[in-house]
Amino acid sequence: MPVGVTWGQYMAFTAAAAFSMLAGSQIVHQYYKPLKDLNEYINKELKNLPPHVQQKIRQELQEEGVLK
Fold first, then answer.
1. What phi and psi values does residue 49 have, to the nearest 5 degrees?
2. φ and ψ at residue 66, rounded to 5 degrees
3. pLDDT at 1
4. Read out DSSP for 15-52?
5. 17-28: per-residue pLDDT in tens?
6. Which residues contact 44 (CB under 8 A, 6 or more apart)?
């Protein structure tokens, strides 16, 4: 432990830091919705690859349920 900090203070700070990180990430995902256009982003990036690679990756992503 850092000098002069009790276990209680250290655990309280750790819990507050973890809670604020979790709450912050939840707020970002609800407000900005970063995964809303995931399919569009994947399709755009796949266009930069050769056709045989595109087909293989699309098939794998569809099997995993990422792409529709």
1. -105, 160
2. -80, -45
3. 67
4. HHHHHHHHHHHHHHHHHH-TTTTHHHHHHHHHTTS-HH
5. 999 999 999 999
6. none
Per-residue tokens: 19: 């809670």
- Checking if the pLDDT of 57 tops 80, the result is yes
Sign of CA dihedral 39, 45, 50, 56: negative
Global pTM reads 0.54
Cα Dmax for the chain: 62
CA angle 13, 16, 22 (to 5 degrees): 140
Answer yes or no: are the C-beta atoms of 28 and 36 closer than 8 Å. Answer: no
Q: Is the dihedral of CA 40, 45, 51, 57 positive or negative?
A: negative
